[in-house]
Design brief:
The complex is a heterodimer of chains A (about 100) and B (about 500).
Chain A: H1 5-14, H2 21-42, E1 62-63, H3 73-77, E2 83-84, E3 87-91
Antiparallel strand pairs in A: 2-3
Helix pairs in contact in A: 1-2
Chain B: E1 8-19, E2 57-58, H1 59-71, E3 83-86, E4 96-99, E5 106-114, E6 120-132, E7 136-141, E8 147-152, E9 159-165, H2 172-188, E10 201-211, E11 221-226, H3 229-248, E12 257-261, E13 266-269, E14 282-283, H4 294-303, H5 308-319, H6 323-329, H7 333-346, H8 351-368, H9 380-391, H10 397-410, H11 414-420, H12 428-441, H13 443-450, H14 457-467, H15 474-487
Parallel strand pairs in B: 11-12
Antiparallel strand pairs in B: 1-9, 1-10, 3-4, 3-14, 5-6, 6-9, 7-8, 10-11, 12-13
The chains are: A mainly alpha (about 100), B alpha+beta (about 500).
């Protein structure tokens, strides 16, 4: 299983990561190896095995609808790249 | 509705997002309210998407979603789960939204939409699922013209229900009715405040056109940014015109997202993402699956209230109300319940009077006091007593209104209020003597009446009403006068 250059660039774009030509080549190989591992799994006969969506034997884990105190606004903004008043300021991104 | 005659069939599907009315957020204990809160004050490490935190489901949000799904006749699968929907945008703290992809809480429901022409249109509901809301962005321009955005995380993580319809609507008006009825049910079930202006009820529409009889749907366009029922209808009507004209000219419709510009009354293409949506959904590894017990579902099923539509039809059948009055009485739910509680005391034979009071003077007072019906300051027993006093002619329509106003603002029983206000009618015996006095004092009117002027009796009625300071029942006075004049 081999990933094309375009596929790697598409994945990088989705992750908003910039890649050099050397990176693209490296990831083409590395990601292809990962896919090969999954290809090995796909060879196992899973007839009659229900799909797994969660790895632990748990279900219906919840909390009651009770409010607890939030963080002080200074803590919320402590790691913000920039702020304006009590808002986080970011570069404008149009959808 | 003024829809131009067209060769095309309109196909509309709606996607509604409604905030579930909980106290805390979907996966963390921050307050779920955001309207009016100071920015970034309802935020914790979980909704901020800090590393190492663990979301835990709000049981009430799940229960309300299931209740609403049951109200729409949905099937509740035995097994459901949350998924991560991945996309990079500054309104997503984690780079993904926790949503539901292929195993939602409910599927295959429907809503029977009452249309203005009296027909009923069944609209399929594909699914109702739960997800978390995003943060709020505001786009700004700086002094130097640089453009940036500011983020308020308060809304991020609030429980948001998504209700997806089948492409079953065939006109903008049907779409609007569907939304109105959906909102009614959201409020009736107490699942959401469902207020479009407050932003806790939002709607996107998919619309396509095809020649009548065509086997396949046309290319669909998604419309966003509609923030009232009226704008939904207007935006869809605009799209019907735009797409019909393009098809008439033999042009292709482009599959795209368009935004409604309220001020300009038109839709514009929104710059689409460079790639088609590629959300790379995968099961949320931090949240175990939800497998609602059958007993829980059955218990919820019986708590689904009678829906407004059913109530309307029953009010017409059971109490002989007009469809118009039944429609008004059916919402809000508090008024429908007040109506029937009053009837439980006053008897079904007085349904029309109860309806008249509720839709007339009580509605007027409620508006004057700027109250929601839920907070109305009058009780069914008081209204039943008021109706009884009118029926026994202790009060007439004018004095009854005065009594209503008194009890509405000061409470107490209508009987006590009537007596406080000095509005209790003269007893019939006293009235008889008064009639004799009035007849004796107005020989001219009596002569005119006997001479064939039937209207002359009104002068005598007026005189009696003046003497009783308006407390007598004018119709009764007239009747008694006619009797007396015929006899004497």
């Amino acid at each position: 299983m081999s990933l094309s250059r375009e596929e790697v660039l598409h994945i990088a774009q989705l992750a908003r990561i910039g890649l050099t030509d050397a990176d693209v080549q490296k990831f083409q190989e590395q990601l292809s190896h990962i896919l090969d591992q999954f290809a090995a799994l796909r060879r196992i006969d899973t007839t009659g095995v229900p799909p797994t969506t969660f790895a632990l034997p748990l279900e219906n884990v919840w909390r009651e609808d009770i409010v607890q105190p939030s963080l002080p606004v200074e803590d919320v903004l402590a790691n913000a790249p920039a702020r304006e008043g009590d808002f986080i300021r970011v570069r404008r991104v149009l959808e | 509705m003024s829809q131009p005659a067209t060769a095309y069939e309109v196909v509309i599907g709606l996607e509604v997002h409604a905030q579930v009315a909980t106290a805390s957020k979907m996966f963390c204990p921050c307050p779920a309210t955001y309207a009016g809160a100071a920015p970034n004050t309802h935020v914790c490490p979980i909704c901020l998407g800090m590393p190492g935190v663990l979301p835990v489901m709000n049981r009430d949000a799940v229960e309300k979603t299931l209740l609403f799904a049951l109200a729409l006749g949905c099937t509740i699968p035995h097994d459901s789960k949350f998924d991560r929907k991945n996309y990079p945008y500054p309104d997503l703290m984690k780079g993904y939204q926790i949503s539901q992809y292929d195993m939602p809480f409910s599927v295959n429901g429907h809503l029977d939409v009452d249309l203005p022409d009296g027909t009923v249109k069944r609209v399929g509901v594909t699914r109702v699922h739960l997800e978390e809301d995003t943060a709020m962005l505001r786009h700004e321009s700086g002094a130097g013209g640089e453009r940036y955005s500011v983020v308020d995380v308060n809304r991020a993580g609030s429980p948001l229900m998504e209700i997806v319809s089948e492409p079953d609507m065939r006109s903008p008006e049907e779409a609007r009715r569907y939304l109105e009825m959906l909102r009614e049910i959201l409020r009736y079930t107490g699942v959401s405040r469902a207020n479009m202006e407050e932003g806790n009820f939002r709607c996107d529409a998919n619309i396509s056109l095809r020649r009548f009889g065509a086997p396949q749907y046309g290319t669909k366009v998604e419309i966003k940014n509609m923030n009232s029922f009226r704008s939904v209808q207007m935006a869809l009507e605009y799209e019907v015109r735009r797409q019909s004209e393009m098809l008439d000219r033999g042009e292709q419709i482009t599959q795209e997202t368009r935004g409604w510009l309220e001020a300009e009354r038109r839709t514009v293409s929104q710059r689409s993402k460079e790639q088609a949506h590629d959300y790379r959904y995968f099961p949320e590894p931090d949240l175990p699956p939800v497998r609602p017990a059958a007993a829980w579902i059955e218990q919820l099923r019986v708590t689904v209230p009678e829906l407004p539509q059913t109530k309307r039809h029953r009010f017409v059948e059971q109490y002989g109300l007009s469809a118009y009055d039944a429609n008004l009485l059916s919402t809000p739910r508090a008024r429908a319940e007040f109506f029937e509680q009053t009837i439980a005391i006053a008897g079904a034979a007085r349904a029309k009077q109860v309806s008249n009071w509720l839709l007339g003077d009580i509605a007027r007072l409620q508006n004057a006091h700027g109250q929601e019906f839920e907070h109305i300051t009058i009780a069914p027993a008081q209204v039943a007593e008021l109706i009884d006093l009118v029926e026994r002619r202790v009060l007439n329509s004018t004095t009854a209104k005065a009594v209503l106003e008194r009890i509405y603002t000061s409470g107490g029983s209508p009987t006590a209020a009537a007596s406080d206000l000095g509005l209790v009618s003269a007893p019939a015996a006293g009235l008889d003597a008064l009639l004799a006095t009035v007849i004796a004092a107005n020989p001219r009117a009596v002569t005119d009446f006997r001479g064939g002027k039937a209207n002359a009796v009104q002068a005598l009625v007026g005189a009696v009403m003046r003497e009783t300071r308006g407390t007598a029942d004018a119709a009764q006075v007239r009747e008694l006068l006619l009797e007396k004049l015929a006899r004497d």
